[in-house]
Write a structure and sequence with these properties.
Blueprint (H helix, E strand, L loop, with lengths): L3 H12 L9 H12 L3 E6 L9 E5 L4 E6 L4 H16 L12 H10 L5 H8 L6 H22 L6 H8 L8
Parallel strand pairs: 1-3
Antiparallel strand pairs: 2-3
Helix pairs in contact: 1-6, 3-6, 4-5
This protein binds zinc ion.
Length: about 170
């Protein structure tokens, strides 16, 4: 359950983001990386890496890595990246959306050749995110898109209110 306090907090966080105009997800990734002072690499999650994971964020020593499911639409890919950015911006510690599947570890290790398979396994086996963290990441992803659209239209459409109402937070949104 997303509380009103959390909603306000994440909305303020999104308002403060350097949202590129015109908005594109790759430009936002670059802007967030610049602000964090470390690169964010976007890669493709190898097929079969994990049957239940469409995206994953790894926090490495010198950079962040977001891997996105291969066989999906560009809109869905963008959303997955925004969702993983949401985890990053909310400072979630989970490290992997779902438990890793053993058969994907070798593939991931090939994709990230400077990481040992053992390290990849340990990252994938870290505690999965809580339901609240998943909802927060989803909320931030939605807020980013809505806020970018609102700025592009140079007006405040009702979509923020609609989102808040959908979350049962309509009074908090105003
Ligand atoms: Zn997630």
């Amino acid at each position: 359950m997303v509380t009103r306090r959390a909603y306000r907090k994440w909305r303020a966080l999104v308002e403060d983001l350097p949202l590129p105009e015109p908005f594109t997800v790759p430009d936002l990734v670059a802007a967030v990386a610049a602000r964090r002072g470390r690169p964010i690499d976007i890669g493709t999650l190898p097929g079969g890496a994990s049957a239940q994971t469409c995206g994953v964020w790894f926090q490495l020593v010198d950079r962040d890595v977001i891997l996105v499911e291969e066989n999906t639409s560009s809109f869905h890919r963008d959303h997955i990246v925004l969702h993983e950015l949401g985890h990053m911006l909310c400072d979630h510690r989970g490290g992997a959306d779902e438990q890793g599947r053993g058969d994907g570890i070798a593939a991931l290790a090939r994709l990230l050749p400077d990481l040992s398979p053992d390290l990849v396994r340990r990252m994938l086996n870290r505690t999965a995110y809580t339901t609240d963290e998943e909802q927060e990441a989803e909320l931030v992803a939605s807020l980013i898109r809505i806020t970018a659209e609102a700025r592009a239209q140079r007006a405040t459409p009702g979509v923020l209110g609609n989102l808040a109402a959908a979350l049962g937070l309509d009074r908090a949104a105003r």
